[in-house]
């Protein structure tokens, strides 16, 4: 069993988040694909997930989660104290998503856009879906 994370492949912040997850997911639970990729679009369709939501998506157990719910569920599967971030799930979703939306809306301005894709090592490359 594993989870699939769909992320904005053009976003520096999202790229850093993916690198952080890879570093703290020693068991290799998560696989990754860009939202803009062919596989990303196919997966959104498969899960009947909306395409018009500007968010990270977590696909697992035949369900999708997005925005703050995806982030917190990702935390649950990371090593160390990052797991404890999942406790924030008790905060009402509208409040969590309000904060998420502020970061999402400003991520290009604050962190920039990527002009080129990262080139992962062969070991890390296995975790990206083609």
TrEMBL record:
InterPro entries per record: DCC1-like, DCC_oxidoreductase
Molecular function terms, GO-annotated: protein-disulfide reductase activity
Pfam families: DCC1-like
Signal peptide range: none
The protein's name in its UniProt record: Thiol-disulfide oxidoreductase DCC family protein
Organism from which the protein derives: Lysinibacillus halotolerans
